Fold:
Amino acid sequence: MIAERAEQGGLSVERMCELSGVSRAGFYRHWEESAPRQSDTALRDAIQQVVVEKQFYGYRRVQQELRQRGHRVNAKRVLRLMREDNLFCLRTRRFVPVTTDSQHGWRVWPNLARGLVTQTLNQLWVADITYVRLQEEFVYLAVVLDAHSRRVVGWALARHLGASVALEALRMALAERQPAAGLIHHSDRGIQYACSDYLTLLAEHRAQPSMSRVGNPYDNAKAESFMKTLKQEQVHGRSWRDLEALRSDLATFLDITYNHQRLHSSLGYQTPAAFERQWRSAPSPAASPSLTGARELTTPSPQTPLPGLQCIGHQNCP
Structure:
């Protein structure tokens, strides 16, 4: 009460202590004990609101979310309060069936993404396919990400692992972004990405294929990281009746939650959409090889198939 009256500008703390028959030393001892508890109580309430909304956030992302909401707090304090309140992000691990068939006769393309430090949007795209379990079947999700901003630029869902699901995701990305010539498209060695239909579509947009080494997920780490986030924050612990129910939820997660709301540590705790807005608003130097990639790359003509396609163009993708 003394502190409240003093803050209201009525009387000084010294005068309030005299009227209350309390020593100033006793008042400050009490204040030093109670003020941190009051501050922790307010912060606990804010932390719980964040955790309820975003139950897969760890303490670092919770701290960044709090800062964006106007709370000045360090990560160690957030961790301490989350531990005291048993507020831990959900983490589960399940068996992941194989979705990559690299035992095929199609050409394997060199890895152009290894060691490449992206400097612009639409410089490097990464693609991958994963499975999602429904109540009565498995379905498959193909995604394409912009490696510079981590934004999902294309995705497709199907009941099969044929090339058409990967093609649909790529077509969405191309229509959405309309990249300039020289884009590098990186994927694993799966037959969906190695077949002629997929490579021809890349060639038509003057994009260059790139593929990971055998059995090395680190070559496509950004896509693998996205799939882990998808499983942890959207798939695990949920159940969908059918494909259309899943499609509706995934559209919300990918287009809104992931691209516009989820904070990414690799982007300085920004969302992909915010990162891209900041990147586009920054003054950009004249285009040069140093801005379009770590190496200069030749681009195929849209009229001429990529080298190696002439001998397989007559075959059909699976």
